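Q: Sequence in, structure out?
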Amino acid sequence: MFEVFERIIKSGVVAQIDAQDETQVVAFLETMSRAGLNCVKIAFRTEKAEELLRMARQRFPDLVIGAGTILSISRGEAAMRAGAQFYTSPGFEFDIVDWCFEHSLPVLPGVATPSEIMHVMKTGLRLAQFFPVEALGGAPVLNSMAAPFPEMRYIAAGGINEKNLEQYLRLPCVAACTGTWISAPGLADKPDWGEVERRARQAVETVKKVRG
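A: Exactly. Output:
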């Protein structure tokens, strides 16, 4: 439905960072570029998120940069002004999805139940974010819940890490995984960007191992 979805699926992992300040976001995106992980999203949880995403889009045109935690149309509007290339939400809200469709914006609503999956399917989308996957029972639950909806695929999010990434990527229903664990050392009081890069490179290698 959207070309950017193909790029997300090809990447296999979407690295995420909470928008804190320009220095931190630039360091994160430079690290992702070096590691070869070219699909990221900035969580819209602070007032600075819009300006940071706008800066990111201008300085890193080769990366696919989306907006996460879109909980309202107003947040979606801020992300659109900043140039977000895709939008994710932890849950499903008809108004947000309808607004995104009206503006031809690639949206990945969150699902956690069969009913929510059916709501997403009514919109015509066949790709959604399954959140919070680990808290809901992990890969076995996602695999069993996906069985009645073979045409759907998911971005697995919530609790993914370097130990279980491969398990999720091997599920036929998983298109990609959200990598919040990748940026964690960069959010510390003393950011460790070397460790962030190691995690990103390992994620890229895991995708290659699973998908060739």
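The chain has ten helices and nine strands.
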